[in-house]
Amino acid sequence: MLNIYVAILLGILFIIIYSVFNTLLYNMNYRRMNRKENMNRKMIMINLISHGVIALIMVSVAIYLSYFK
């Protein structure tokens, strides 16, 4: 099983990674808004899929470390 200290450190690491990733995505979005462009379907799907992929990676790592190690 996963030690509590390792779980806390992994949680902090995942929060930092996810925050940086979201900052990059929303920085891209704010630049688009400043140019007065609407968000097209492709940009919505890229945003959705990229959030899903990063969340899937984080959950997979957490499950692997807690159950299969």
Automatic annotation (TrEMBL):
The chain crosses the membrane at residues 6-25, 46-67. Keywords: Membrane, Transmembrane, Transmembrane helix. This is Membrane-associated protein. It comes from Staphylococcus epidermidis.
